[in-house]
TrEMBL record:
Protein name per the record: Enoyl-CoA delta isomerase 1, mitochondrial
Swiss-Prot/TrEMBL keywords: Acetylation, Fatty acid metabolism, Isomerase, Lipid metabolism, Mitochondrion, Transit peptide
Cellular localisation: Mitochondrion matrix
Organism of this sequence: Ursus americanus (American black bear)
Pathway membership: Lipid metabolism; fatty acid beta-oxidation
Length: 243
């Protein structure tokens, strides 16, 4: 599955909806056993959640958006398919969450690429379920530092901390992802799926038990004047960077 939402594969409501529909089709088609998620935008896996869906929007829109973000996470995280991330570009925040929700992550060895939950750099916070997935992946202490400091790990650090499973030359990302897929598909589906569910369900359940409260919490948080101001400053910084 090649994500194509130029210029930066930001996860807009429309794009999330498209991804959800595609994933549902694949999940329900029993001829598919696995998917490789990668990007069609050069140098960018995904710029994460679309800031324009959270900035200057009314509460109803923010609630609708957040429900779709939750939905995408649950669908990828709990998928019965083998999900491999072929991360061929930078992958901050929501892009990192998408990567962390895969069963295995292969990152291209390019010093321009980085991956991490950088929310604090925007003046916002990673929701508890983003945090849970990071803690499950890199451990409590590493996650504590990474989250507070908004670390975006370049490839060698990403491998060292375990936020990705493999770093390979850029031209080998897709072939490596395919070899990894073959290895995972060698396991009988029912055994692998039940085991995946056993490991991941408690984390997903934490959100499933309080989805509405999580939406309300998001809407309250994102609507605060101070948070809207932080998003404005960040968006301006992105514009100024262009010169
Ligand atoms: C209680 C819980 C509360 C809140 C939880 C919220 C959780 C949030 C999660 C997130 O995912 S927030 C988003 C985090 N993402 C980022 O920080 C990445 C920001 N973008 C960049 O750093 C760069 O754009 C880049 C991805 C490195 C690409 O750089 P490049 O130089 O190639 O492109 P440029 O910066 O010029 O961007 C092109 C164009 O795209 C717009 N853009 C970029 N990122 C986003 C985004 N995430 N959402 C919306 N729009 C984005 C950028 O402004 C440019 O627009 P323009 O052409 O109109 O100027």
């Amino acid at each position: 599955m090649k994500m194509r939402n130029p210029p930066v594969n930001s996860l807009s409501l429309e794009f999330l909806t498209e991804l959800l529909i595609s994933l549902e089709k694949l999940e329900n088609d029993k001829t598919f056993r696995g998917i490789i998620i990668t990007s069609d935008c050069p140098g960018i896996f995904s710029a994460g959640l679309d800031l324009l869906e959270m900035y200057g929007r009314d509460p109803a829109h923010c609630a609708e958006y957040w429900k779709a973000v939750q939905e995408l996470w649950l669908r990828v995280y709990l998928s019965n398919l083998v999900v491999i991330g072929a991360i061929n570009g930078i992958s901050p925040a929501g892009g990192c969450l998408l990567s962390l929700s895969c069963d295995y992550r292969v990152l291209a060895n390019n010093p321009k690429y980085a991956i991490g939950l950088n929310e604090t750099l925007l003046g916002i916070i990673a929701p508890f379920w983003f945090k849970d997935v990071l803690v499950n992946t890199i451990g409590h202490r590493a996650a504590e530092r990474a989250l507070q400091l908004g670390f975006l790990f370049p490839p060698s650090d990403a491998l060292q901390v375990g936020i990705v499973d493999q770093v390979v030359p850029e031209d080998q990302v897709q072939s490596t992802a395919r070899s990894v897929m073959a290895q995972w598909l060698a396991i009988p589906d029912h055994a692998r799926q039940l085991t995946k569910n056993l490991v991941r369900k408690p984390t997903a359940d934490r959100l499933l038990q309080q989805r509405d409260a999580d939406i309300q919490n998001f809407v309250r948080f994102i609507s605060r004047d101070s948070i809207q101001k932080s998003l404005h400053v960040y968006l301006e910084k992105l514009k100024q960077k262009k010169g």
